[in-house]
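To illustrate this point, we now present one chain and its tokenised fold:
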Amino acid sequence: MNSNLFQTILTLLLTACGIVTSILLGLGCTQDAAGAVSCAASSAPEWLAPYLVIAASALGIVKLITGAITGKLVLPTAVISTSGAAGTVHPDVVAK
């Protein structure tokens, strides 16, 4: 699988965790000053909040490790331009 596709899938899953957390807060769950979500006083399932935290943490760590392994965290990226300005790469020399 292409690492860009894998990174995109991880980003979508992280976004889904955030959306579900927002829905839980909309259903009456509360968030304390430390950021912990509690659903004890709402109609939302109490067991879901800790699993969202675990999932988001794990996905973030996998995303970071994948970026480190593929070099996307530290390698410079080339700016593609047809102007020929300094520091740019022409589209013809980019691997297809």
User: Anything to note?
Assistant: The radius of gyration is 20 Å. Strands lie at 30-31, 37-38, 79-80, 88-89.
